[in-house]
Request: fold
Amino acid sequence: MSRRRYLLASVIAVTGFGALFMALPSQGAGVRVKIVDFRYQPSSITVHVGRAATFSNDTTLTHTATCPDCGVDSGDIQPATFKTLTFNKAGRFELSCRYHGSQGMVATVTVEP
Reply:
């Protein structure tokens, strides 16, 4: 086993799912957004049309990443899970949590051609 694979396997074995998400290679993986304390981190992202953003729920509550104007809806993102969404419409959009948007859980998504 290569040193890199050995280290990745060790991290997974020792720290579980959260470490797996953070240890994934960033090349070609798209944008990563964490859901923490009723907010998206970062609160503003930029992706290219046809590219993805992955939303990881690091809370104990169910959240969503919903953007009706850009045609993206994650459905429920359960605690300690993630969903990857592909953005296919160029523009600047507001993304929010269906359950907590009124509490300020919003982000800005800029989708470039």
